[in-house]
Design brief:
Blueprint: H1 38-71, H2 73-77, E1 79-81, E2 84-85, H3 86-92, H4 94-134
Antiparallel strand pairs: 1-2
Amino acid sequence: MSHDPSPPYPAYPWQPPAPPPAPAPHPSRHRSPLGHHSDLRILRNAYRRQRRTATFTALGYFTFFLVLSACAPSFMASSLTDGLPTGLVLALLQLPVTWLAIGVYEHTARRCVDPLSDRIRKQSQVDARREAAAR
């Protein structure tokens, strides 16, 4: 059997020809698209770290309180001052700990996550303008 080197003919001649391949961009002027850029991975990791820190702050204290309530009832029933049991003080401290978790979340958002997302947003706008100008 021999191989026929002639190009194949379309089965249906009324179909349009296949579009030509897109020209390769010049390597010195091309920046990788934003979706393939490591900034998105960095942003995801910063946001994940932010959520974990705030969640573990609030849930960690709550778990600590539950463990003390279950395993050390005599400690929780002991009083810190006249008539104020330790368990009640620790229960009332949950509200400030929750506020602390919210504050940590906002602080890490302003310090780590927001600057990254702003940089990615600005770069995507630049990429969109650059792509629109190239058309």
